[in-house]
Amino acid sequence: MKIGELAKRTGLTAHTIRYYERLGLLPFADRDAGGQRDYDESILVWIGFLKRLKTTGMPIREMIRYSELRAMGSQTSPERCVLLKLHRERVRTHLAELEASLLVLDTKIDTYVDADKRTQNNDKSTQTSRNQIGARAARS
């Protein structure tokens, strides 16, 4: 598939795909007779994996290291596994931090909601009192 098709199917720009090739994150594509990149379908799975690594915050230098090890073959599986385990632990730590931050946000939002309810109840109570006072004054 051509770079435009790959870009469309992966959500990456053609510029990003070429950049990833230069970094070594993607293997260099075969070229067709006209010299245009021609990607194999299997690249889609690899790009999907790279996008997951990026989403989870793996630094690009580690992504490059993983890619280099992958290109060396199955004998590097143990080292790749170690890289992924270390990254997984960082992701878990980050998730715990995000969950704690979310709890703080929820608590703060509840404080505002409760304050708004008190204000609304106070406004209704004040309005009711004014209406009752106004009604008594009209009867006098």
User: How many individual β-strands?
Assistant: 2
Tally of DSSP helical segments: 5
Pick out the low-confidence regions.
none
Estimated share of beta-strand residues: under 5%
SS class:
mainly alpha
Shape: elongated
The rounded distance between the terminal residues' Cα atoms is 90 Å
Roughly what percent helix?
over 70%
Give the helices and strands as they follow along the chain.
Answer: HHEEHHH
| Average pLDDT figure | 89
Biggest beta-sheet profile: 2 strands, antiparallel
Radius of gyration: 29 Å
What is the topology, as strand order, of the major beta sheet? Answer: 1-2
Summarize the structure.
With 140 residues, the chain is mainly α.
Structure description:
The mean pLDDT is 89. Helices cover 76% and strands 3% of the residues. It has a two-stranded antiparallel ribbon. Helix 4 runs antiparallel to helix 5 (77-139). The protein has 140 residues and is an all-alpha fold. Strand 1 (30-31) and strand 2 form a beta hairpin.
